[in-house]
Amino acid sequence: MRELSLHILDLVQNSLEAGAMIVKLEIVEDLAADVMLIRVADNGRGMDEKLRQLVIDPFVTTRITRRIGLGLPLMDMSSKRCDGYLKIDSTPGQGTIIQAKYRHSHLDRPPLGNMVETIKTILVANPTLDFLYHHTVNDRTFTVSSREIADILDGASLTQPEILIWLHEYLSDNIANLYGGVEE
To answer: Helix 161-178 to helix 115-125 angle, to the nearest 10 degrees?
Structure first.
């Protein structure tokens, strides 16, 4: 996958397929420490220790739509290539936490990608999902939740064109502010 945002979409899809109703996405970019950390936590069905160890094998997948699962193996490979790691903590019946760490300045680190479209896709495609996005770049932080957006919209659908435009601008402005007002 060329962008980390595509990995994030894959991780959220894995959470949904595991029955998660709550998904929390955290991204930390600490330039002084030269770290990029991506964490996706859910309250899905979780995995036992055997499956947890197997999911980084591309020929192991719980999906029935295809026989090969590449998301976690590719993220594991890219994080290790960038002096980082992929860590999976999971408890059956409680959920899973996937954490990937990269050396931020590493030449081979994939770009983060279009987080505005990534967050919009997650929110619009999953209207009942309790989703929290928390992104930190050095000392700047942006947090948004599906609950917060639902309160702002007071029952209006995210699929309405004027609301999609508002959501795009809201996310664009706040994510750009993380980088000093300039989109990455």
So the answer is: 140
The C-alpha atoms of residue 38 and residue 45 are separated, in whole angstroms, by 21
Strands 95-103 and 35-42: antiparallel
Of the candidates 85, 27, 82, 36, the residue with the CA atom closest to the CA atom of residue 56: 85
Of the chain, the end-to-end C-alpha distance in Å amounts to 18
Going by their DSSP bridges, the two strands 130-137 and 22-30 should be labelled as: parallel
Residue 42 in contact with residue 89, Cβ under 8 Å? no
H-helix or E-strand spanning residue 132: strand 130-137
Cα 96 from Cα 127, distance rounded (Å): 21
Q: Are 118 and 5 in contact (CB under 8 A)?
A: yes
Q: How does strand 95-103 pair with strand 85-91?
A: antiparallel
The model's pLDDT over 2-49, given as tens digits with 9 standing for 90+, comes to 899 999 999 999 999 999 999 999 999 999 999 999 999 999 999 988
pLDDT single digits (tens) 151-183 = 989 989 999 999 999 999 999 999 999 999 855
Share of the chain above pLDDT 90, in %: 80
